[in-house]
Amino acid sequence: MSTLFRPASYEPPYREAVAHLRASDSVMAGIIARVGTCRARPVRGASHFHHLTRAIVYQQLSGKAAATIHRRVCGLFPRRQAHPDHVASISDAAFRAAGLSRQKIAYLRDFAHKVRTGAVPLDRVRHMADDAIIAHLIQVKGIGRWTAQMFLMFRLGRPDVLPDLDLGIQNAIHRAYRLRKRPAPRDVQRIGSPWAPYRALASWYLWRSLDVDKKQ
Fold this sequence. Notes:
The protein is mainly α and 216 residues long. The chain contains twelve helices and no strands. The termini are far apart.
């Protein structure tokens, strides 16, 4: 990947992005009016490896249980920060005692190995295109396309990501666009095409619309 690649960032102020979404889609304009000001912010601090380790730990767990296990796992690392160089030195027994399943231990070891060998170049992701980052990340056992997209949106702040497999996005579109059935990923992409190049912001509004509609 060329070092000349400089991706746009999904960060405030969002005036230009919101104006584009309003002008490109009247339904989205209505969602924006109901939800209000966008408060999305990329996650700062720690490392990309630490952030993605959290995603692996949290898979298929409730928030409270996942947070407890993640805290214990972090306690196994120096300064409580997950790092690929230290994974091999932590025993399976220690990970198990922290609450990780055998499957997730295997995922974490595979992830650390791929980062250390350069198969997953986390040190260069800020200079890589979205599709290239996804292609690298999904090589890791336990990191799928959805997790990679969340990393792009909420860690790297990439502005044009549309997680078409996300049930929340599908449900929000189903409701807002008054469809007969929940849209398939291809339908999400079709409906969301006018939102480019700010589909991540549109996705945030769709997620929030579900919360707003519940309160009404």
